[in-house]
Every structure is written in C-alpha cells, then in structure tokens.
Design brief:
38% of the residues lie in helices and 22% in strands. It has a single domain, classed as Flavodoxin domain (Rossmann fold, 3-Layer(aba) Sandwich), CATH 3.40.50. It has six helices and seven strands, in the order E-H-E-H-H-E-H-E-E-E-H-E-H. The strands form two sheets. Strands 2-1-3-6-7 form a five-stranded parallel β-sheet, with helices on both faces. It is of the alpha/beta class and 179 residues long.
C-alpha cells in the first residue's frame, strides 16, 4: 500500500468516533503517502446547473467557463485516481451520510471519468483500489434497517469501480487499536 486518500466527514472535530477510527485505520495500513481531505474544515459546494451541464461536454470541447465549473471536481477525482486505498470516516446523521460526504460523491461521480455506460450497463473506471469505511452512529447499528448510509456508500463505490470495500463500526476499530 503506497498512497491513501483519507476522507473525514464528521461535523465534530474533536471527540468524533468516525474521525478517530478512520485515523486508526490509516495508521494501521502504514502508507507511504496520505492525502487528507476534511469535508467539514474545507466544505465542498453542491453541484450546480453549470456543473451538471459541463460534466457532459467532452474535455476537448469545453469552454473556459465549463472547465472552471469542473475544476474542483477534477481535483477530487485526481486525488481518488492517485490513491491505492480510500479510507472514509463516515458518521450516520438522520439515518444517512452527512451532506458534505454526499457533496463529495456528487463531485466525483462523473461520466467518462469515473464511470461509463455501456450496452451492458454502467462500468466503473476506478479499478484495483480498496476502500475502508469507518462507520459511527449514536445508536443505529451498521446494516440496521435504518442505516441508509452504508448501502449507499457501497453502491457508489462499486459504481465507480471500487468493489473491494470494507465497512467497520468505529467502536470496533478503536477497541482493536486499544488492545
């Protein structure tokens, strides 16, 4: 393992179980390089009409305005493409993932860049990567009927080609680290 993209989405900066667990996962993987993205400290915008339109224009036909609309998305995708492993600290808020993590997903799911449609259905373009998701909630267990975040994250990662995905409850990750 050489390069990890580490993403934290908790609104809580100190005392966050998902942040602590994702940091522990990164440390246990002993990477050579880590790219860290804190979605709370550096919030991402939601997609706009300009972004939605620009993402469908072939790169060689885009205007400067369309390139500008996609610039942050391009940066986020480059971080993802450069990583061998993705580690995500994902809290559960109101039965789903935080809006900041959903904003990240919206910006990295790009046709012809991270996935493409074929006559046999969609094909993810980010292969040979693994993902580890540290899941934390205040009371809804992972994979419970009210946990809409883990199935959503699994579908999204699989859709873009990352099929080796492990979910771990933050409490278990932290207990393992303490042992």
């Amino acid at each position: 393992m050489t390069h990890i993209l580490h993403i934290d989405a908790s609104a809580t900066s100190s005392g966050s179980q998902s942040r602590a667990a994702s940091a522990a996962l990164v440390q246990s993987l002993d990477p050579l390089t880590v790219t860290y993205r804190d979605l709370t400290a550096n919030p991402l915008p939601f997609v706009t009409e300009d972004w939605v339109k620009a993402r469908l224009v072939p790169a060689d036909a885009r205007t400067d305005a369309e390139n500008a609309a996609l610039a942050l998305s391009d940066t986020l995708i480059a971080e993802l493409q450069a990583a061998d492993t993705i580690v995500i600290g994902m809290p559960l808020y109101n039965f789903g993932m935080p809006a900041n993590l959903k904003a990240w997903i919206d910006l990295i799911a790009r046709p012809q860049v991270t996935f493409r449609y074929t006559e046999n259905g969609p094909v993810g373009l980010l292969e040979d990567k693994t993902a580890h998701v540290a899941f934390a909630s205040g009371g809804v267990p992972m994979a419970a009927p009210a946990d809409f975040a883990t199935p959503h994250m699994r579908v999204v990662l699989n859709f873009i080609g990352i099929t080796d995905v492990t979910f771990a409850p933050a409490a278990e990750v932290l207990a393992t680290q303490a042992a």
